[in-house]
Specification:
Oligomer: single chain
Structural class: mainly alpha
Order of helices and strands: HHHH
Number of domains: 1
Number of strands: 0
Distance between the termini: 35 Å
Helix content: 55-70%
Largest sheet: none
Shape: globular
Length: about 80
């Protein structure tokens, strides 16, 4: 077990940051489109370890910094300026 998503090293299953960013993009898209999945993840949001475990169990693997890059990518694609 690891201490959290930012402690992952080059031993990640996806093997590259670009693929991990794409995993985060896919996660964000699913959060936007799958109400049941979003509810499940939101219900776990108070427990960081359980939340990251559920993300990984759902087939996604990324760090918080990769998640932020994915957000930026989505913002750029949709012409959204974050507040």
């Amino acid at each position: 077990m690891h201490d959290g998503p930012d402690s992952w090293s080059s031993g990640r299953r996806f093997g590259s940051a670009a693929m991990s960013v794409e995993s985060a993009v896919a996660y964000i898209q699913r959060m936007r489109s799958d109400e049941d999945f979003r509810k499940k993840m939101n219900d776990l949001s108070e427990d960081e370890a359980a939340s990251w475990a559920a993300i990984n169990e759902s087939g996604y693997e990324f760090s918080m910094s990769e998640f932020k890059k994915a957000q930026e990518k989505i913002y750029e694609e949709h012409g959204i300026t974050p507040m």
